[in-house]
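Show me any protein, keeping tokens residue-aligned.
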Amino acid sequence: MAGGAMNKALIPLALSLAAVVSACNIGGGDAANGSQSAPGDLAGARIGAPFTLTNQDGAKVSWDDFKGKYRLVYFGYTYCPDVCPVDLQRIMQAFGRFEKMDPARAAKVQPVFISLDPERDTPAVMKTYVAAFHPRLMGLTGSTDEIAKVAKDFVVVYGKEEAKGASDYLVSHSRTPYLFGPDGEPVALVPVDDPATPDKDEGGLDAVLAFLEKWVK
């Protein structure tokens, strides 16, 4: 999806992403899996569009600021109690190892965490959060309308879940860690673990590292 209307070629992808919504709740029973689409099959998909958001330092950042770099993009929120921190930890640990193995190629990658909870994820909150995973991880937030548009353009399904009488809330969202190429083109879904296959670890450090080695040229 880019700029609004969904093309027919992207409908199956959007449906698969919508079907793997993670409630990010304590039980984790609704955690989605990223193995619905094989790595590399995003080539030609209409995912992404220009945007301007605010980073963890309060500075405006646009999608085109990353031109010439691969973009490792994860959508989530800092108050997520389970899925987001686990995925981010694994992805960024693998990226850290990739940096040590091949600094030149790793320098071509910009890891980005985009909040789906702009009401709570202020730049200050994002700054503390992303620093816990990797010094190069950039956190982006914005207004409710800005985040809604970015989520739509990047085919991310999300929604607030509020329980009666509770002052807090969760944000359900599709589990879609993307790799984009140097021109902003979608390349592949980053591997994440599938809770439906407890005997396998599809999103382990080795799997993510192999993914980066394969796609970052």
User: Anything to note?
Assistant: The chain has a mean pLDDT of 85.
